[in-house]
Design brief:
Two copies of one chain form a homodimer. The first copy, chain A, is an alpha/beta fold and 432 residues long. Chain A has 15 helices and twelve strands.
């Protein structure tokens, strides 16, 4: 009896399902076995190779086999602190850093450890809400709008803190910029205003800056500059270093959140123990950086920037509204302006929209609903990573960085991504 | 306020502390900085290098950077299934396997996912109880005795199932053999008897066989042979393959626990995502095995066997009782026969015993209490891994495997371990 199906499952897990991005990849796989030529724009994975120097470091440290300290390899914690000191102008040392096998599990341990409210502006990353469900908790969602560029405003944060009859409730607000799924980023002015409110109400900020290096103009600014005492910076090598599959994430805490770092580290020692040693050793090279890595980043940014702007333009022409892409590798078009047309075709929300685009025009994207947007909103996330990053990088390297990429570059090296966008446009374009 | 110390911590985490093995390593480090020559017999880490072919594979796959499927790289799941089919005679395919970053986090996800009682015979591995605490749950401990060779008996399992007025309560019983901390293993007869009771009461078994390949005679037998429909086998590359720091663990489920595998996989997709890709690719080589790896294992076993028997003999001469070592790399001496003498010196349990041995004779061991034994019992775990494994392996390779290791081999290659044992003996030996 106990061995039979579904008898003895924790209720928090029931109906959880796989993460929507992973589920979409599986649907692509199935359609492909049916012979369909599916384009997958659902994955958030850099198309570029891991920088050579980082791969070399992994090979060099392949024999490292000892269990490393729970909080991380001291050399890596040091490199991460240096990195944030230099890039973000904050005062951090190795003691402020916690290393995890991906930042996702660090988010989970944060939600587990912190006894307070987790506040997330939407559209937000797909895992915050299910992680809370796993823990039998809830997250407080604040819906932002297209007009606000999908950003949390200082005013709405103030309103939240004032409206709950519990102004100083322990709270963590999660910001993610450059943002997944929106592909935009906060202005310095916006960051300063949010920092002011957070300081006033003693709100902790988790600043998810995993796409920081993929700001398309290389001008990422951390809110830690304006609220260093209350900001945890989340980073890792998954996105800018293209090593998502390696699993290495980092949290950098301010001194006065040492108690939270300590609690998460204790939880880590009973769950993942420590991160793979060869991977951590390679991570040192990644975070120490080099001219090679900087050059690699500039090429990646130049390609992402040109490609995303062209895709955004195509989507606008087809009737969507979409903000100018500023970072990461996602677009988050909103088809509200042509909602009537979609509804006439029996499409009443983002899940149906993405389903139909997948089934009819064979492009995989992720519905806005997966990012905690209202069910009946016509938003979706398309990543623009489905091209051969090594080829594109090599071609870009032959073109001086101060020049624009020439006409035809995208047609040649990012043809699939343009084709994906065209298929989405073909699908949504008003029909008679 | 919210930023201050200890304000907003989940109660389940408070007082959890670091895992005792990790805490002990930290104490060693501190004593060493004070100039003490401390011998560390608290760590459960193979002294041998990762087999060459496995290191080579890691280098070869260093460029692998994609997010792998949550359940694991198909090639690895396949290799793990093959491994258990060949070694343990069970019927498994890739679909039965779940890969995690260490088996510790798989244990955690199991405790999280399963809605039922977790039953653990003591002495047991240090993390089961704290993992339950993290989840706000409890584990049911069954104390075994020295006379029972620290083994769960079929009778006591029957008694548990009959005594609770809830005979068919969903239950998972965790067995670990060869065992940490006891260094013994179950006989085929014992396994058959437990299997019979488990089948009768529909109890699920989690059979932690991470030390299976380190059965000193190479004669490990899995209980899955006798209860295949209800046994999950836990394994990984941390112990026999000496790659603890790499973080790769495996669970292999029977077909009719597919619902549990699915739930754990969903939880994995919201926590650790997937295991590091280069590590998984290297794991394929480890689980596929080879003549080289088999030869490496035989050398490791020969050294561990001779060393552990000599240490056990020394401990017995000093007044301890300890069973003949059969596997893994731990001894679990019980100093009850000389309890009077210890009590006279103000030592009233295992924590004090290990403290005093560390402070006075500078050997780090882990108290029985950390393995959920009664506080006032005079047991401790000493690992016998503190020697240069590469040197010892190279020396052993020069001696045909059918021969015994010569006189003087241990004195030469495992001198530190013998010295640790001598210091422990010196400490406990009755004094006038």
């Amino acid at each position: 009896m106990n061995l039979q199906k579904h008898v003895s499952l924790n209720l928090n897990l029931r109906g959880l399902g796989e993460s929507p991005t992973l589920a979409m990849s599986e649907r692509c796989r199935v359609l492909r076995t049916e012979g369909k030529e599916v384009l997958n724009n659902s994955i958030g994975q850099s198309p570029f190779p891991v920088p050579n120097s980082v791969v070399k470091a992994l090979k060099m440290y392949a024999r490292e086999k000892t269990y490393l300290p729970v909080k991380g390899l001291p050399e890596l914690r040091n490199a991460v602190a240096d990195y944030h000191r230099q890039k973000d102008g904050i005062d951090a040392s190795a003691d402020n850093v916690l290393i995890g096998p991906g930042s996702k599990i660090l988010m989970y341990l944060l939600q587990m450890s912190f006894y307070g409210e987790i506040v997330v502006p939407t559209p937000c990353w797909v895992s915050y809400v299910p992680q809370a469900q796993l823990l039998g908790r809830q997250v407080k969602l604040i819906n932002t709008t297209y007009e606000d560029r999908w950003h949390l405003s200082a005013d709405s944060l103030t309103e939240l803190c004032e409206s709950e009859h519990d102004t100083y409730r322990p709270r963590i607000v999660i910001l993610n910029y450059p943002g997944n799924p929106d592909g935009g980023t906060y202005t310095v002015e916006e960051l300063k205003n949010i920092a002011k409110v957070a300081r006033k109400y003693e709100v902790i900020l988790l600043s998810d800056e995993i796409y920081g290096e993929l700001h398309h103009r290389g001008e990422h600014v951390s809110i830690a500059n304006y609220y260093s005492e209350g900001t945890i910076i989340s980073s890792g090598i998954s996105k800018w270093c293209a090593a998502g599959g390696w699993r290495l994430g980092t949290f950098t805490f301010p001194d006065n959140l040492d108690w939270l770092l300590a609690a998460m580290s204790d939880a880590a020692s009973q769950t993942y123990t420590s991160v793979s040693s060869p991977i951590q050793w390679a991570g040192v090279t990644a975070f120490k950086g080099s001219v090679d890595i900087e050059r690699y980043l500039w090429h990646a940014r130049r390609i992402f920037s040109k490609l995303s702007n062209q895709c955004a333009e195509m989507l606008r022409e087809a009737g969507a509204r979409v903000h100018d892409p500023e970072g990461a590798f996602y677009l988050f078009p909103d088809f509200t302006p042509i909602a009537d047309n979609l509804e006439k075709r029996g499409i009443n929300g983002s899940v149906e929209l993405c389903d139909r685009i997948l089934c009819e025009n064979h492009v995989a994207t992720i519905p806005g609903a997966a990012f905690s947007r209202p069910e009946n909103e016509f938003t979706l996330r398309m990543s623009y990573c489905n091209f051969d990053g090594s080829k594109a990088l090599a071609a870009s390297e032959a073109i001086p960085l101060h020049e624009d990429l020439p006409e035809g570059f995208l047609d040649h090296y990012c043809a699939k991504t343009l084709e994906s966008t065209k298929r989405i446009c073909d699908f949504v374009r008003p029909r008679d």
